[in-house]
Design goal:
Elements: H1 2-19, H2 33-37, H3 43-69, E1 72-73, H4 74-87, H5 92-111, H6 113-121, H7 128-131, H8 136-142, H9 145-153, H10 156-178, E2 183-184, E3 187-188, H11 193-211, H12 225-235, H13 237-252, E4 256-257, H14 260-267, H15 271-296, H16 306-313, H17 317-342, H18 346-350, H19 352-378, H20 382-396, H21 403-423
Parallel strand pairs: 1-4
Antiparallel strand pairs: 2-3
Helix pairs in contact: 1-4, 1-5, 1-13, 3-4, 3-6, 3-21, 4-5, 8-19, 9-10, 9-11, 9-19, 10-11, 11-15, 12-15, 12-17, 13-16, 13-17, 14-15, 15-16, 16-17, 19-20, 19-21, 20-21
C-alpha cells in the first residue's frame, strides 16, 4: 500500500509541476518550456514536442530496463508525467486533471509495465526505437548555445573560440570516462561530457560579459535575467522539496532507481555499490542541470539527482523523506547564490536576450535533425523526404507551426503513415 501511494503521489506531483512549468524531468525539454511560458510557443506544440521527445524513451528505455531489473527506472514515471502535464493547458481544472492522470499513470506503471510494451509490439510497425532519435541531438546540441550567444553579443571570433574550447572540454571528459581516470573511493565517476562542455561555454560567456564595462554599474540590481529565473524556482521550492522527499523515500524502499547502473546493482542486492554509482552519476550531471535551471527558470523534479543516493543510504523511509527534501532545499539555495553572482555584472545582464535567441536557434536545429533522423529510422528514405517537405512547406506557408515543433510533429506523422503503409502492403519493416 505504501509503495502504490508513493507511485501515485510521485506521478501526480510531477505532472502538476510540468503543467505549471515548475519542473520537467527531460533535460532536452527544459529549455523549451519557457518558449511556452513566455508566449512564443503554443501549448499544443509544446505537448507534441514533449511527446515526441519522451514517448520513445518511456517505452523503449525506461520500461524495458524496469522490467529486466524488477525495480522501476525513474524515467518510466517522470518522462510520462512530463508528457501528461505539458499536454494540458494550465488552469485549475486542467491542472487537476493532470494531477489525476499523473497519479493514475504512476499506478499504472507500478501495476502494468509489461502490458504497455506488449501493446506497442502489436502495431504493424513498432516505431518506438526510431522515435527515440527525436531527442538525441538536443542535449548534445544545447551545449552550443553559449558560443552562439557570445557570437551574437561580442564577436564571431569569440564565438568560434568558445565553441572550440567547449568541444575540446567535451572530448577530454569522454576520454577521462573511457579510461576511468576520475574515481571516488576506487569507484569510477562518469561525468557528463555535454554538461562539462556547457559549463565551459557558460564560464566563457560570463567571462566576456564581466569584462564588458557599463557607465552605470549597479551591483545591487538583482531583479534581472538569472535571478528572475532562479527566483521563480525558489518560489516553488516547497513543492520541489516534497517531490525530492517522495523520490528519496521510494528509492529507500528499492521501488525506484535513478539510472540503469545503480538499478542493476540494487537489484543484485549491492546496496552500497548502487549508492556510490548513484552519487557519481549525480555529480556528473550537476553542471547540465544547474546551467539549464539558471538559464530557463525550470527545475527538475529530482533536482541534481542526489536524492536517489540519499534514499539508498538512509536507514529508513522517514529519514529518506526528510533528507531528500532538505537536499532539494540546499540545491535551490546554491542556484540563488550562483544567480546573484551572475547578475552583479551589467554585461551578463545584457546577455539575456542573446541567450534566449541562441537557445531558440540551437533547439530549432537540434529538433529538426532529431525529427529527420527519427522519421528516417521509422521509414527509411521516406522519412527524410517527409521532414524536408514538411519543413519547407511550413516555411512557405508563413510558419503556422513553429520551427521547433516541425521535426517532432513530422516524426509522429511518419510513424502513423508508416503503420498505414504496412497495413496497405506498401512497406515492409
Amino acid at each position: 500500500m505504501i509503495e502504490i501511494i508513493l507511485m501515485i503521489s510521485i506521478g501526480a506531483l510531477a505532472a502538476v509541476m510540468a503543467n505549471l512549468g515548475i519542473a520537467v524531468f527531460n533535460d532536452g525539454i527544459r529549455p523549451i518550456v519557457p518558449e511556452n511560458l513566455e508566449g512564443r510557443m503554443s501549448r499544443k506544440e509544446l505537448g507534441v514536442t514533449a511527446f515526441a521527445m519522451s514517448f520513445g524513451l518511456v517505452i523503449g528505455f525506461g520500461i524495458p530496463i524496469s522490467i529486466a531489473g524488477s525495480i522501476i527506472l525513474i524515467h518510466s514515471i517522470l518522462l510520462g508525467s512530463d508528457i501528461i502535464g505539458l499536454s494540458l493547458d494550465r488552469g485549475k481544472i486542467k491542472t487537476t486533471i493532470a494531477a489525476i492522470a499523473g497519479g493514475l499513470y504512476g499506478a499504472g506503471i507500478y501495476l502494468g509495465l509489461q502490458a504497455v510494451v506488449d501493446l506497442f509490439e502489436m502495431l504493424p510497425l513498432n516505431f518506438v526505437e526510431g522515435f527515440n532519435k527525436v531527442g538525441e541531438p538536443v542535449v548534445v546540441s544545447f551545449m552550443v548555445f553559449p558560443a552562439i550567444a557570445i557570437a551574437l553579443q561580442f564577436s564571431v571570433k569569440k564565438g568560434v573560440f568558445t565553441l572550440l574550447v567547449a568541444a575540446l572540454a567535451r572530448q577530454l571528459i569522454v576520454f577521462a570516462n573511457g579510461a576511468a581516470l576520475i574515481k571516488i573511493g576506487g569507484t569510477p565517476v562518469v561525468l557528463s561530457p555535454e554538461g562539462i562542455a556547457l559549463v565551459v561555454g557558460m564560464f566563457l560567456l560570463i567571462y566576456f560579459a564581466m569584462k564588458e564595462k557599463s557607465e552605470e554599474q549597479n551591483l545591487s540590481a538583482l531583479a534581472t535575467l538569472f535571478t528572475d529565473r532562479v527566483t521563480r524556482i525558489k518560489k516553488h521550492s516547497w513543492i520541489l522539496m516534497i517531490s525530492g522527499g517522495l523520490v528519496a523515500a521510494a528509492t529507500n524502499l528499492l521501488l525506484i532507481a535513478g539510472d540503469p547502473i545503480s538499478l542493476n546493482l540494487l537489484s543484485e542486492g549491492k546496496i552500497t555499490e548502487g549508492g556510490i554509482a548513484s552519487l557519481a552519476k549525480a555529480i556528473g550531471f550537476v553542471p547540465l542541470i544547474a546551467s539549464t535551471a539558471i538559464a530557463t527558470g525550470v527545475y527538475g523534479p529530482v533536482g541534481f539527482t542526489f536524492v536517489f543516493a540519499a534514499g539508498i543510504f538512509s536507514p529508513n523511509i522517514f529519514l529518506a523523506l526528510i533528507i531528500g527534501a532538505l537536499i532539494i532545499f540546499l540545491e535551490i539555495r546554491l542556484l540563488t547564490t550562483l544567480a546573484k553572482f551572475l547578475d552583479k555584472y551589467p554585461g551578463v545582464r545584457a546577455s539575456g536576450e542573446n541567450i534566449r535567441t541562441a537557445m531558440t536557434r540551437v533547439l530549432e536545429v537540434a529538433l529538426l535533425i532529431g525529427g529527420a533522423n527519427a522519421a528516417n529510422a521509422i521509414v527509411p528514405g521516406f522519412g527524410f523526404f517527409a521532414i524536408a517537405g514538411f519543413y519547407l512547406l511550413n516555411e512557405v506557408a508563413g510558419r503556422p507551426i513553429v520551427r521547433m515543433a516541425v521535426g517532432p510533429v513530422g516524426a509522429i506523422a511518419v510513424g502513423i503513415i508508416g503503420n498505414i503503409l504496412v497495413l496497405l502492403g506498401l512497406f515492409t519493416p
